[in-house]
Structure formats: structure tokens, C-alpha cells
Design a protein that fits this description.
heterodimer, A: alpha+beta, 39% strand, B: mainly alpha, 71% helix
């Protein structure tokens, strides 16, 4: 099965040195995922103040400056992994680095065909 | 009538095995439930007409499998979506030939599926009791003080998540074993606590208590090498053993130290002590064993006539190290008061860090009242009792607190 591991974190309070460390940890995790044949894809996103939301209300579309939801913890990146089951996907999610407070949502991909 | 009696007996004896085997065979909880219901219905019809089979449980399993097979062929969807596709079912001929094959014991696997930590804690026990013991949603809902509709929704949601999120119908891998087992134990603990809350013990939750007791015993049978499994089973037995002594004839709560030990259930206590000894031999301590050991010290009063309070304090100290909680800290303070006097207890109680504001927490105020009374500080005891009464105690505890307040004059 494939799972999307969605990383939500606090965008503020980012110390440069700490950030570098986290990025390096992501690199190592990426290599480990590749090694295990579990890596399907993944990206870091630019911060939510660069987001544009296209909203359709009653069939009418409009653009909004900002992310879909204005919350303290914002979508910051994702991994798409191949895992045999939820336990294995959760094990990868636990390895995703971040600051002291962040969350990783594990969502199964709806299989196509 | 005879057919129904035989069915009832077979279900009581082997219902959990049959349900679990069906669920595992088809990796689908709904299908297993439906197949079991179908087999039970068919059993009454067939057995009334032709007489009961040699092995009613095996008959139920064979017919259930056949039914699930038919249902699966009709639905024929899940296989591609689910990772661990079951082996292809043999053709009907083979099933009939093998009708009396032993039923595989898949109960542990089923418990692990139903108690997966990715499921909401309140859904886990409901799902376990429903799929393993066939408890109706209505009965489970009553024990949890919710409606049948809400309970059915909770069960449906949990089953959908199991199906779609890739929760495997397998014993967890060694890496996940610890976390998964912890979730199973926590599920049972929460269920038993819920049952215990109902202090009268005569209501709908008592039902849940006996089922949880049974489930904890089954877990011991299935995972006898896990000391915490034994510890939890012992803990539940020791607590349950005191149920007959928990209320006096007026329905007021009787505190542990004032309970008539003659009312305690010696058989359950004996079982629990044996479980704890076995757990200790495995040489890995843990919070459930420690909690059970605390209860075991209390239970020893049955034999010795006294409580070794210093041991209780030491066990609470150990428990607070591995699993700190405000309630354990409060109970430790009360034990300390017994071991070293009310002042020591009050000092320890003052150092407790509670959930939110301590003054608004019932166990804290109740303990405080007891310790002030012990110290002869009646005015402060009365004040604490009034504070406790304002915090909505359950009826049995309310009666007890009111009586204490009245006795202070």
C-alpha cells in the first residue's frame, strides 16, 4: 500500500542552525527510504505565506492569499511511501525529523484501478 | 428447543474461537459477523430437523466459512485493495470434506486487530467485545452510557478504518509488538475502569466488568510469557474480588480499609496471587504488575489481619517512577499517612501535582478530608468534605462523604 505522510509544524521559531540539522536528518531519512525501496516521493514546501487557495463556492471560483486553514501548525512537507501495512507506515512516520513539536498525519492512498 | 440449547452451549464454549477464525479467514469483520449469524440461524433450523451434529462448533465454523465464501464471491471487491489477500478459499466440496477440521485459534490476532493503537481508545473495547464475544451494540452502549446509534457509528467507523488504512490481520512484528501490546492492555484497563466507576456494581457496567475479566484471562492463555499481561489480569481479579464489599447495605461506598474481608472473593484473590507469582518469575516488572502488587498487599489482610502500609508506600514509589499519575500520588499520600502518620501524609498530599486545579479535583479533596480527620483537625476535614461534595461525586461516594460530614458534627 502507499501512504502519504503529511508533516505539520510550527513555521515560526525557526533557528537557522536547528533548521540545518533537521534538513540533514531529512536527507538521511530519504536515503534510508530509498535503500528500503519504500520511497515513492516527497517534498518540502515553501512556507504557508506563499500559499494561494483557489476556493469554489456554489460553483464560483475565487482566489485567496494564504493556506486553506489558518492554524498554528502548517503543512510543511510530505513523503509518499510504499509500506506493507499501517504499522510499517507509522514506523516511517516516527522517523520523520522536526522540531520539538510537530505532527505527522499518516493517510492511506486510495488505490486506483 | 433442544437445538437452541445446544447452539447456546456451543457458542458459549467456542463462539469466540469461531468468530475469530472466520474474521481471520476472510480478513473482514463485517463478513465474519454476518457469516456467524447466518450459521447460528441455520443451525437451529437444521438441528431441529436432523438432530445436532457430532461437533456443533465445527459445524458452525464450516457453515460460517461457506457463507462468508459466498458473500465474498458476491462482493468480490476488497481483494485488490487489501495488501494481505487471504489464500483462495477451497471449493465447496473440499469445505464439506473438511467440515470437522479443528477450528484454528485466531483469537490473539483478532484482539490485536481490534485494539490497534490507531483506533480510538473508546472504539477498541467495543469492537473487541463485539467481534470476539458477540456482545450487542446495545449492551455495549448501555455500559458506556451512550446510545445504540452512536455505538453502531463508532463500530462502523472503526471497521472501515481497519479495512482501508492497512491494519493487518496479523500478529504484530517484533518492532511493533511492545506498542501494540500496550494498546491491548490499555484497552482492557480503560474498559475495566469504566465498569468499576459504576460503584453499585449491579448495573449495566457490571456486565462489562465480567467480560473484561474474561478477556484478561483469555489474554493470559494466549500470551502467557508477557508479565504485564499477567499483571493486568491479576489487577482486575484483585479489584473485582472486592466488589461484594464495596458498598454497605445503604448503598454507601465502603473504603478499602473498612471493608469486611469476609465478603472478598477468595477464589479470585487466589488466582491473582498465582498470576503475580508467575509474572515475577518472568523477571520484567511493569506498571500493571506494580498496581496489582499494591492490591495484593491489601488482599493479604484477609490472611494476616493487617495491612503492610510501608510496602504499599514503597510500591507506589516504584509505580510513580515508571508511570507517574496524580491519582497514584494521592493514593501514596494516603498510604504514607497510615505508615508514618497523618502529618507525613498531608505533606505528601500538598506536594501532589494534579490535573488542573487540585482544589477542584474530587480524589484530592476526599483524601484531604480523610487525612485531616485522622489528624484530629475536624474543622478542616469538614471543609474538605464540603468541597468534595460540591464536585459531583457518584451516588455511593456522595452517601459516604455525607455520612463522614455528619459524624464530624
Amino acid at each position: 500500500m502507499q501512504y502519504l505522510l503529511i508533516i505539520y509544524g510550527d513555521e515560526a521559531l525557526r533557528d537557522q542552525a536547528v533548521m540545518q540539522e533537521i534538513i540533514a536528518a531529512h536527507m538521511r531519512l530519504g536515503a534510508e527510504l530509498q535503500e528500503a525501496g519504500a520511497m515513492v516521493g516527497g517534498n518540502r514546501l515553501r512556507s504557508s505565506d506563499t500559499a494561494t487557495t483557489v476556493r469554489t463556492t456554489g460553483g464560483v471560483q475565487s482566489l485567496h492569499d494564504g493556506p486553506y486553514a489558518e492554524t498554528r501548525e502548517q503543512l510543511g512537507g510530505y513523503y509518499l511511501v510504499e509500506a506493507p501495512d499501517l504499522d510499517a507506515a507509522v514506523a516511517w512516520a516516527k522517523k520523520i525529523p522536526g522540531g520539538p513539536n510537530y505532527a505527522v498525519e499518516v493517510r492511506p492512498i486510495w488505490p486506483v484501478g | 428447543m433442544e437445538a437452541e440449547r445446544i447452539l447456546e452451549e456451543a457458542v458459549r464454549e467456542a463462539g469466540d474461537r469461531i468468530r475469530a477464525a472466520l474474521a481471520m479467514r476472510f480478513r473482514d469483520l463485517d463478513m465474519a459477523e454476518e457469516a456467524f449469524a447466518f450459521a447460528s440461524l441455520r443451525a437451529v433450523e437444521t438441528w431441529s430437523r436432523d438432530g445436532p451434529p457430532r461437533d456443533p462448533a465445527a459445524w458452525l465454523y464450516a457453515v460460517g466459512r461457506r457463507r462468508a465464501f459466498d458473500l465474498g464471491r458476491r462482493a468480490k471487491v476488497r481483494a485488490d485493495a487489501v495488501h494481505d489477500t487471504p489464500e483462495p478459499e477451497p471449493d465447496p466440496e473440499t469445505i464439506l470434506m473438511a467440515a470437522f477440521e479443528p477450528i484454528p485459534d485466531e483469537r490473539l490476532r483478532l484482539i490485536f486487530v481490534c485494539c490497534h493503537p490507531a483506533l480510538a481508545p473508546e472504539a477498541r473495547i467495543a469492537l473487541t467485545l463485539r467481534t470476539l464475544y458477540g456482545l450487542s451494540a446495545e449492551r455495549i452502549a448501555r455500559a458506556w452510557l451512550t446510545t445504540e446509534v452512536a455505538m453502531l457509528q463508532r463500530l462502523t467507523r472503526a471497521k472501515r478504518k481497519i479495512r482501508d488504512s492497512g491494519i493487518r490481520f496479523e500478529i504484530p512484528s517484533p518492532e511493533a509488538w511492545g506498542e501494540r501490546l500496550e494498546a491491548v492492555l490499555a484497552t482492557l484497563e480503560i474498559a475495566y475502569a469504566q465498569a468499576y466507576e459504576d460503584a453499585a456494581g449491579a448495573g449495566d457496567a457490571a456486565d462489562l466488568a465480567s467480560e473484561t475479566l474474561r478477556l484478561s484471562g483469555l489474554l493470559v492463555e494466549l500470551a502467557p510469557e508477557e508479565p504485564e499481561v499477567l499483571g493486568l489480569a491479576a489487577l482486575i481479579r484483585l479489584t473485582e474480588a472486592r466488589r461484594p464489599a464495596r458498598l454497605d447495605e445503604t448503598g454507601a461506598m465502603t473504603p478499602l480499609s473498612e471493608q469486611d474481608v469476609g465478603l472478598w472473593d477468595r477464589r479470585l484473590i487466589g488466582e491473582a496471587m498465582a498470576l503475580l507469582r508467575r509474572a515475577a518469575e518472568l523477571g520484567r516488572s511493569g506498571p500493571y504488575q506494580l498496581m496489582a502488587a499494591i492490591h495484593a498487599v491489601h488482599a493479604t489482610r484477609l490472611e494476616t489481619g493487617f495491612t503492610a502500609w510501608a510496602n504499599v508506600v514503597a510500591l507506589y514509589d516504584a509505580l510513580l517512577t515508571v508511570r507517574p499519575s496524580p491519582i497514584a500520588a494521592v493514593n501514596r499520600a494516603v498510604a504514607l499517612a497510615e505508615a508514618q502518620g497523618a502529618d507525613a501524609g498531608l505533606a505528601a498530599l500538598n506536594a501532589v501535582e494534579g490535573p488542573g486545579r487540585l482544589a477542584a479535583w474530587l480524589p484530592y479533596q476526599a483524601a484531604r478530608a480523610g487525612l485531616f480527620a485522622k489528624a484530629g483537625r475536624d474543622a478542616e476535614a469538614a471543609e474538605a468534605l464540603r468541597a468534595a461534595l460540591a464536585l459531583h461525586p457518584a451516588p455511593a461516594e456522595r452517601l459516604f462523604l455525607e455520612r463522614r460530614l455528619a459524624s464530624l458534627g
